[in-house]
Amino acid sequence: MALSKSKSPPFTWQTPVLCVSDLSASLRHYQEVLGFGVSWAWNDDEAFENPEKPTFACVYRGECFIFLCEQGQGNPGSWLCMNLESLEELERVHKEYQASGAEIVEPPTDCSWGMREMIVRDLDGNTFRIGCALSN
Question: Which of 27, 83, 110, 121 could form a disulfide with 103 if both were Cys (CB 3.0 to 4.6 A apart)?
């Protein structure tokens, strides 16, 4: 199936929103276990930046940004695909996650669609397919 060219304006970027049960716990997990940084966190009832009990936040790793929403905007158990530039980077992330105690559901595995992918879950069952093309 060929991709058709649309006359509609193209989207320039995306940021998925994941539902989490306890944002403070998730922020610690994303930083300490999954290696993400926190771009910002806020709570409507307290303060926009640096609230005591955040309910919405943005985490990032490289060019990958994810919004985390406490008990809202979606359902736990979403899936995301994240790609790396090289097989060496995938192996480094795998070793990093083994050392940090991340829940690795499946180690890096060669797939019939030309990718090597690993499967990782966060505290709320949100699942990440992290991979790289085998031809790299």
Answer: 121
